[in-house]
Amino acid sequence: MKTICFYFQIHQPFRLKRYRFFDIGNDHYYYDDFSNESILQGVAERSFLPANKLLLEMIEANKGKLKVSFSISGVALDQLEMHAPEVLDSFRQLAKTDCVEFLAETYAHSLSSLKDAEEFKSQVELHSKRIESLFGKKPKVFRNTELIYSDEIGQMVAEMGYKTIITEGAKHILGWKSPNFVYQSAVNPHVKLLLKNSKLSDDISFRFSNHGWDGYPLTADKFIDWIKSIPENEQLVNLFMNYETFGNMQPRETGIFDFLKALPKFAEQKGITFSTPSEVAAKLKPVEALPVPYPISWADEERDVSAWLGNALQQEAFNKIYSQADRVRKTKNRLLMQDWLYLQTSDHFFYMSTKRSSDGALHQHFSPYESPFEAFTNYMNVVSDFCKRVDAQYPSSVGNEELHSLLTTIENQELTIQKLECEIKQLKSKPVKPKAAPKK
Amino acid sequence: MRALMFGWEFPPHILGGLGTASYGLTRGMSLQPDMDIVFVIPKPYGDEDQSFLKITGAGNTPIVWRDPSYETVKNRMGAVMDPQEYFELRNHIYADFSYMHVNDLGCIEFSGRYPDNLLEEINNYSICAGVIARREPFDVIHSHDWLTYPAGIHAKNVSGKPLVIHVHATDFDRSRGQVNPQVYSIEKNGMDHADHIICVSNLTRDTVINKYHQHPDKVTTVHNAVEPVSATVEAIKPIRCGDKVVTFLGRITMQKGPEYFVEAAAKVLAKTKNVRFVMAGSGDMMEAMIQLAAKRGISDRFHFPGFMKGNQVYEMLKSSDVYIMPSVSEPFGISPLEAMQVGVPTIISKQSGCAEILDFAIKTDYWDIDAMADAVYSIISYPAMYEFLRDEGKKEVDEIKWEYAGQKVRDIYNRVCGR
Predict the structure, then answer these.
(1) Count of C-beta atoms within a 10 Å radius of residue B218
(2) Contact B17, B332 (CB under 8 A)
(3) Which of A248, A263, A290 is the last residue of a domain?
(4) Nearest residue on chain A to B391, judged by CA atoms?
(5) Which residues of A are less than 8 Å from B387 in CB distance?
(6) Do residues A84 and A48 touch, judged by C-beta distance below 8 A?
(7) ipTM exceeding cut-off 0.90 for this assembly
(8) With DSSP H G I counted as helix, E B as strand and the rest as coil, what are the percentages for chain A, rounded to 5?
(9) Residues A228 and A349 grouped into a single domain
């Protein structure tokens, strides 16, 4: 009895506008509204809306047998709300079917798990609340930005109460082992790991319309046959991919929607079911622990974090933005807090990659910039302005601890004033006793 | 394989990039064991490095029969060439040029520069080429730039050997489109007669195909390279003045886009103060640039040290934090490679040929002064950017070698010679 676990990622960053250094200190709006809106609406129209519609039909037609899961980043939710609210409506409809699970991740689709545990936890919490308020369900399964995972991250996630984590079935971690089992974290045996089956996932998301690939054309029955031919004891096939695979990365003309539509029928014929990650975690027992000392991800040939932090430019930009973390967390300025989130999005670092060959081409394909240097310069200019704003709130000449005690004093001051005011009120409201007449 | 090359400049007496490229290419080719090169220039000075090729001066080639003694010839041109060579060449005078203005040895005097009567010098050079082509045995003719195309054609007609011309620049680059018809006709004629055309970049190749109407099959790009830095250059110590230094180095002419540099400097200086701008070189736009800098109110931080040569160039480069080449149209542009060799982060215009082979340099449009100013600011303000470009840029440029370019040229020789 085999089961397919589908998980789709939905994410769109807030791309930055061309921000020149002479804007530093003068212009505090950083985003390229036009391209963000047009890209999001384009993707929604080509991919999210038709794919959601199809999934809804399929779930109804298969009477609850088809199950999928989504991870929608907070920044993507913000953008959908602004530019394509109809997509959120269709997700709400999907949520009502009970065949769809929504996963937890960092709100900003950030790399905070690699740098700042406090920030990481607060972002996951923020995202979880947002998902719950939108779809009425609290996420139970965690997946990190771009499936980044290490033992350390696993432990942090476990401490937040998540029992299942989704990540990449990276070859250098698995070795001879198969991704088609449930594993457990090496540091916390209560945490289950679901690993992406890279071969079969990428067959759909990257190779589906590749005429040069020997699997072309990929049909639903052929694909189900491949799954069927996996050894009997390997019961789980994790197909994790970008939701934009449907309609955007693989355009409608390639027949990707028909492929998806036909999958449940052939799966049923071969006795293959569909499950959500939670169901998988409940049903299957982990076979063994999987130690991951260094972070892995699903990006690039290396399957590590070099796509975002592979060169000196990326590391500098990354360190620069996180140098502001302590200060920003103290602020109550909502605009500052929002920019703080949007600037942490991993895509900004992805654009700065100087890798070459096919991975480099992929970075370049997604990048709104002409070169990694332009990406770095633009981002650093924005961050410079951001730092100035943070500095205006809390001057950098004041140390963190001093600042903290000052803030406490100010807060306490308010409390004291409140208390005193209350007292005054009370005293005033008390009837004044007439003074006793002086005795003579 | 013996090549007869026609050039106009050869180090150490150079006026522009042509001499540097000629030297680098011939040196790179000389590493091929079976390659002999005779390099003809108008006026050798005697201090050229002849260890890997033979240099013949057009100005030392007799075209009218005179009968000087061996001693006279030795006294007059012994520093430049073997006196016996003079007599050998004299045996190959092919027509009566006694109406020409020649000296007592029967030779034409060349300035070896780019004088006002340049077209006359080109013609004279071609006459001398006829004598040399009859004297020297060779398999292929290679002409560097339009000045020597007529000589190449002449040599081809005399010998019947294939002609390869090397386009280091076209008049479209030099004039921003205002082409001189005489120059164009010489260039076009050279290309039409050539068996193969080598261009220094795809940018130039496109110009040759589209503006000179050459068949694409006949035109190949061989990107220039750069000589490794010498020990003396390596030893030069940078001079630091406490401020960041942004340098422009080259002829201050329309082609090089100096005004965009001044405008970008004004933008940067409006925001930061700890930076100085240097425009080294000379040219017909220098005065206009001095005035422009004054008009923008940045003269206190914008410097014009004048024309530089030899080690001065490297002294300037090494003392710089940013090198910038905003050329409007640059067939190749070796100077950014030289800057990167000594670890200076480099900004180049996308309209430069060298942009085609450089990954670790910042590229902007020459007219986009905002982008240029931004790139300058980024390098001087963000240490990671500076260090990354310094280290990766040097690594990259150290792999761009004349040896490889020479091999590509050799492949073309083999093809046109049918080997």
Answers:
(1) 14
(2) yes
(3) A290
(4) A312
(5) 312
(6) yes
(7) no
(8) 55, 15, 35
(9) no
Task: Find the CATH number of the domain harbouring A79.
Answer: 3.20.110.20
Q: Do A371 and B384 touch (CB under 8 A)?
A: no
Q: Domain check: are A269 and A362 in the same one?
A: no
Q: Which residues in chain A have Cβ-Cβ distances shorter than 8 Å to B369?
A: none
The alpha carbon of residue A24 is apart from the nearest alpha carbon of chain B, in Å, by 9
Q: For A313-322, what is each residue's pLDDT tens digit?
A: 999 999 999 9
Domain count, chain A: 2
The residues on B that touch A, with CB distances below 8 Å, are: 267-268, 270-271, 359-360, 362-363, 370-371, 373-375, 377-378, 381-385, 387-389, 392
CATH class of domain segment(s) B2-225+402-416: alpha beta
Q: Are residues A261 and A334 in the same domain?
A: no
CB-closest option in A356, A370, A380 to B378: A380
Active site residues of A: 146
Same domain, A310 and A266: no
User: What is the structure's pLDDT at A439?
Assistant: 60
Alpha-carbon gap, residue B26 to B42, rounded angstroms: 17
Chain A closest-CA separation from residue B388 CA (Å) = 6
Closest chain B residue to A317, measured at CA:
B384
Q: Are residues A139 and A182 in the same domain?
A: yes
Tell me the chain B residues in contact with residue A354 when contact means C-beta distances shorter than 8 Å. 359-360, 392
Question: Which residue in B271, B377, B388 is closest to A311 by CB distance?
Answer: B388
A436 part of a folded domain: no
pLDDT (tens digit, 9 = 90+) per residue, B320-350? 999 999 999 899 988 899 999 999 999 999 9
Asked if the Cβ–Cβ distance from B370 to A20 is below 8 Å, we say: yes
Cβ separation B378–A371 shorter than 8 A: no
Whether A186 maps to a domain, the answer reads yes
Question: Would B2-225+402-416 and B231-397 be classified into the same CATH topology?
Answer: yes
DSSP code of residue B177: T
Domain residues for the domain of A230 are 2-290
Distance between start and end Cα atoms, chain B: 10
Nearest beta carbon to residue B382 from set A22, A356, A380: A380
Query: A320 and A262 in one domain?
Result: no
Q: Which of B169, B148, B189 is nearest to B8 (CA)?
A: B148
Contact B267 A22 (CB under 8 A): yes
Q: How many helices (H) and strands (E) does chain A have?
A: 19, 12
CA-CA distance, A163 to A140, in Å (whole number)? 7
| Chain A nearest CA to B293, separation (Å) | 19
CB atoms B375 and A377 under 8 Å: yes
The answer as to whether A381 is a domain residue is yes
User: What are the start-end ranges of the E strands in B129-261?
Assistant: 140-144, 163-167, 196-199, 219-221, 244-249
Asked if A316's CB is within 8 angstroms of B384's CB, the reply is yes
With tokens 């092919």, the residue in question is B94
Residues A248 and A330 in one domain: no
10-residue mean pLDDT profile of chain A (440 residues): values are 92 94 91 95 95 94 90 96 95 93 95 95 96 93 95 94 93 92 93 94 92 91 93 92 93 94 92 93 93 93 92 93 91 92 96 84 87 93 93 83 83 88 88 62
Residues of B in contact with A371 (CB under 8 A): 362-363
A373, A376, A379, A387: which to substitute to probe chain B, counting the most B Cβ within 10 Å?
A: A373
| CA atoms within a 13 Å half-sphere pointing along the CA-CB vector of A405 | 4
Q: Residue ranges per domain, chain B?
A: 2-225+402-416, 231-397
Contacts of B398 (CB under 8 A, 6+ apart): B228, B341
Residues A348 and A263 in one domain: no
pTM of the model: 0.83
CATH class of B231-397: alpha beta
List, in order, residues 6 or more apart from A229 with CB less than 8 Å away. Answer: none
